[in-house]
Amino acid sequence: MILGQRIKEEREKRNWTQTDLTEKLNVSRQSISKWELDSAYPDIERLIQISDLFNVTLDSLIKGDSELQRHITVKGTDDHMNGWEFWAHYWWIIFPIAGLIMSFLSYLN
Amino acid sequence: MILGQRIKEEREKRNWTQTDLTEKLNVSRQSISKWELDSAYPDIERLIQISDLFNVTLDSLIKGDSELQRHITVKGTDDHMNGWEFWAHYWWIIFPIAGLIMSFLSYLN
DNA sequence: CAGTCACGCAACCATTGGTTGCATAGTTGA
DNA sequence: TCAACTATGCAACCAATGGTTGCGTGACTG
User: Fold this and answer.
1) Distance of CA B45 to the CA centre of its chain
2) What's the Å distance between residue A30 CA and nucleotide C19 C1'?
3) Is the CATH number of domain B3-67 1.10.260.40?
4) What's the pTM value of the predicted model, to 2 decimals?
5) According to a count of CB atoms within 10 Å of the terminal CB, is the N or C end of chain A lower?
6) Which of residues 83-102 of B touch strand C (CB under 7 A)?
7) Which of B108, B106, B6, B94 is nearest to B50 (CA)?
8) Which positions on chain C have an atom < 7 Å from some protein CB?
9) Looking at domain A3-62, does it have CATH number 1.10.260.40?
10) Where are the alpha helices (DSSP H) in chain A?
11) pLDDT tens, A47-100?
């Protein structure tokens, strides 16, 4: 579980102490320590508070998902995708490849 | 809390019974009933399983967030990013633009 | 109307998240 | 150098709650 790591990360990014978080989330400092050490997990209500406080998605907190990783997940579990979905997923790789091919063709000219 | 509603929604969308979910998630049928009635919340590990099984984001499950809302949130809260973060975020757009510029330059040749 | 399916309710139990209190390491300043 | 303070981790305890088993009920169905 990556959650503890992520919470600590976001906290330190803001130069907050665990005690600082205490006030913002209304829990004891120990709870926060536990969360960060993966010795316990915050309950759902507090998870929402945390994601709101840090302005990050729950997926980013819990799964450590970045946008990119998320696409991979979707891809791995999508049983079938139509043409449009394919484009929506892979335009970012098709685009530069197309660009490179174009430049190569121009070069041949 | 919207979670129960969302789970039920995704389950019924697939015409699954609670018992069907039982096998896929390795919990008793009662637990699932409780989740859907907001009489209990699945623990984090199972939440991840659920989001993977249904192929939806955790935010969508827990907050009821749509993709759109999610993007707005993410975008609106990025406070500052250093050079590297910028690259990490935007390489996918810089890449194809570079490709297009290259092809254009080759064309001028 | 017996059998079955899908689901909710109630009671019990075990897990675990949260709290209080104490210990430790690092830092600061007289 | 050593008290004082800060930031964090560890241990023990307790209450909350998630999960399970067992039972009840309404809706179909042959």
Assistant:
1) 15
2) 8
3) yes
4) 0.67
5) C
6) none
7) B6
8) 5-11, 16-21
9) yes
10) 3-13, 18-25, 29-36, 44-54, 58-62, 67-77, 83-108
11) 999 999 999 999 999 998 765 444 433 333 333 344 434 444 455 555 556 667
